UniProtKB/TrEMBL annotation, chain A:
Domain Cytochrome c: 49-139
Keyword Heme among UniProt keywords: yes
Species the sequence originates in: Sideroxyarcus emersonii
Superkingdom assignment: Bacteria
UniProt-recorded Gene Ontology molecular function terms: electron transfer activity; heme binding; metal ion binding
Coiled coil: none
Signal peptide range in chain numbering: 1-25
Entry keywords, A to Z: Heme, Iron, Metal-binding, Signal
Lineage per the UniProt record: Bacteria, Pseudomonadati, Pseudomonadota, Betaproteobacteria, Nitrosomonadales
UniProt protein name: Cytochrome c
UniProtKB/TrEMBL annotation, chain B:
Organism the protein comes from: Sideroxyarcus emersonii
Domain of life: Bacteria
Keywords per UniProt: Signal
Protein name in the entry: Cytochrome C
Signal peptide: 1-28
Amino acid sequence: MIRTFHVLLLVFVAVAGLMSLSAAAQTPDEALASIRNEAQHSIPAFRGFSADTGERFFKQTHGNELSCASCHTENPAAAGKHARTGKSIQALAPAANPERFADAAKMEKWFRRNCNDVLGRICTPQEKGDVLAYLLTIRN
Amino acid sequence: MMPGTSRYLHAIAVAMLLMGTMMSFAHADDDDDDGERMPAARNALWQAECGACHVAYPPRLLPAESWHALMSGLDRHFGSDASLAPAAEREIGAFLEKNAGSNRHAAGKPILRITETRWFQREHDEVPERTWKNPKVKSPANCAACHTQAESGNYGEHGIRIPR
């Protein structure tokens, strides 16, 4: 009886572990789909994402000293460099670095931090989607 | 010898050995001048999160009260948002405070910048101004510009290459 219970418990823990893993792992296209879903729910007149708008957003400053490109460079397929500390930053475009946008929590963390640094606020789903759409057009 | 005495002596020997070990730990902890031999302590989350933007600075470079203050304001971390998920913040904060350095030089408010500690200034007092201004160095936050093995925690003299 106790053994069966233990086996069931182990199976439950293993399944829960796998589920939490699959919840975190995503492809960049799935990341874009999840941002699109967010946009559709929060923007009544949502008309899709634009890679061109994303590129302009990425390269411009937004009232603060830094732009996205300040650290990630104007070529997101290349390695970047932290604007303040000089620490090297791996390429941002998924074509050049498959780990990018593969972890949902990590993606949200960096959007939160970097948008606060570049814009002084969090980004809208439209802004995030435009930028990711742009990054997905980049070929290595 | 009375029966049981040898066991008694054995216990005393073990206790003395333990005390000796503890004292040598206490002594090592008291030694403030061996910045080059740090850090023994490592933590995977500290390495990944702090190390994403700068070298993951060894915990013993600041006292516990400094790490505590620093970890309480990660959303305004020297002009950047470095905020973490609460669980990660707790784990890294506990690791830093547990392995923190001595605070006997601290006065008043906790020092948040390692460069403002007397230890850092003493260790770097021979570095000329032009080195700090070199674009290859950029900032004193960029330990790895000169300490070529800083990533692995080795700040020893032999690993220092000052860029020209």
